[in-house]
Structures are given as structure tokens and as C-alpha cells.
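*** Fold description ***
***
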Amino acid sequence: MDKERQAIYEALLLRSMHGKLKRRTTTIVANLFNVNRCCVQSIWRTAKKCLAEGVPVDVSCKRKKNCGRKKVAIDMSRIATIPLDKRTTLRALAHELGVTRSTLHRWFTQGKLRRHSNTLKPYLRDDNKKAWLQYCVSMIDGGTLQFIDMKNIIHIDEKWFNTTKKAKKYYMLPEEEDPLRTIHNKNSIPKCMLLCAVTEPRYDNEGKCYFDGKLGIWPFVRQVYFYSPMQMFFFLFALDQGCQFNSAVPCCRNQHKEAANIETRVL
């Protein structure tokens, strides 16, 4: 530390003329030693003060041994005793511990604290657990007592999609007019329900996929017009839902060659 300060003073003295520094000399020396400019200026002021008093120039650091701000001792085990709802943010936790938020942020960057994102999990009642267990048991082959390969199972799910969004971005030419999109109520955007069906992918002996398991997607709905005294607008109605389930099985049999010899189970 003192050797660096002495080297900074010698560099300033080398660039001085009749005890004065040229413009931007302190900035150049600060960049040379990778220190703050104020530190270089403080060293030069100390040297000038020593010369004015007629004493040997001493630019060594006056802070010796145990100096500077002392760390505040905080018991980290107190954090575990604070209720979880009072430590959802660094600001709330800092208020409970009686420290600053910057201190907690420093602990977080040092790895002393960790951030945990907690999501709600479904609560299983006894009948739910029993149903899950029965389903797992139904997947076991009675002859080999091993789980079946599930190649004869089709997974079906309904998906909801909004027909549009409240805000959209477009890339247009400067001379184009801005499009106008209107809807009866932007908080009640019409939705469309689709039926999706997938099964296990099929691979040949060389590991190449010849069937990706995607059976298809079918709409549950059709557009019909509904007359209102105020205006004419359309809704999307879910119609003929039962026939859509019957579409998945023939599609499965048509898309891969093994489907003709298996018993298809729809969940």
C-alpha cells in the first residue's frame, strides 16, 4: 500500500514543473496505477503540505492496523425464525432483521441467502390417492408383473385458445394505415376449444422415428351468428363433442401400421 502511494508521488513529481502539475496529470497517473483520481490528488496535497512545513515528504497511509468501518455482527440463524410471509422480499426481510437492504443483497450475491420460488401443489385426499394407486396398478401386466409399454394408450386433452389478443405488434411500411381491430368486450375475448390426441412415438430397429405420436387436433367448435338487438356479433359454441373422441381412434389406426393389432384405450 505505502509502496504504491510512494510510486504515485514519484510519478507526479516526475510530471511536475516547478512544483505545479499540468492539466489532466492526476487523471493520467490515476489511470496508470488503476486508482481513483481523488486518491492521487490527496497524495499530491499531502506532499505539498509536507514541503510547505519543511519536513520530509511522507505520503504513507495514516490508517494503520484495525481501521475502517467495522462489520455489524448479525446472527444469520434469526432468519429461520422469521415467518415466511414476512420474508417474501429483501425489503421486508431487512425490516425484520433491522439491517439495510443493501446488506441483504450483498449476502445474496455471496451465496449466504438463496431465492426460492414456491408454487402451490395439489392436495390429494384419500380417494384421490386411491384412484392414483388403482391407475398405477392397472398399468401392470399380470403375466410379467412389469409395467406395460403404453403403446395402446391415447392421451387426449382439451386446449383453450383465445381467438385474438388485446394488443398485437405488426411490422408495417411507413405509408401503411394502422389497422383497426374491434371487439364487443375486450375482457371477454371469444375462445376456441380444440381436442388434442397424442400417443407414444414409434422407432424402428435403427432408432429412427417413423411415427412421432402426434395423432391430430380437431376443433370442438364452429362459428354461428347470434342476433342481438344492439348489434350482430358471433360466438363460438362447443358442438358435437362426442364425435370428436371417435375421430382419434381411426386416426391412430391410419397413421401407424401397428395400430391394427392393438387394443386402443382412450383416457
Remarks:
- Residues 148-172+188-266 form one domain.
